[in-house]
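Milestone 3.1: sequence recovery, worked example.
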């Protein structure tokens, strides 16, 4: 499987994410049917798996689903810190998914 290099950008993004507090007032909130706490936890778990050796096919599919949810909800968030938090989460998810992008033929 893919697997991101621990010294690469994903590890740095992960460390930054661990230092960022979850946005105040957004626990239990959902946007367009997407629960923000669950989305954050799902991406975090998938990134940890990627950093520890890579994702299997179901993990890859789930990560792409999280990215789709992030793409849908980030534009809907109108609070600055929360929007930046989930924008960073989306960036981290995309970096984790990058080794699994299909190649063009």
């Amino acid at each position: 499987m893919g697997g991101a290099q621990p010294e690469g950008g994903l590890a740095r993004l992960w460390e930054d994410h661990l230092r960022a507090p979850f946005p105040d007032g957004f626990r239990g909130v959902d946007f367009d049917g997407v629960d923000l706490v669950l989305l954050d936890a799902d991406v975090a778990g998938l990134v940890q798996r990627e950093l520890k050796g890579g994702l299997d096919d179901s993990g890859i599919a789930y990560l792409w689903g999280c990215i789709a949810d992030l793409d849908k909800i980030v534009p809907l968030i109108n609070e600055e810190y929360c929007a930046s938090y989930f924008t960073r989460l989306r960036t981290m998810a995309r970096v984790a998914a990058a080794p699994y992008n299909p190649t063009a033929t």
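The mean pLDDT is 90. Residues 46 and 63 are 7 Å apart (CA to CA).
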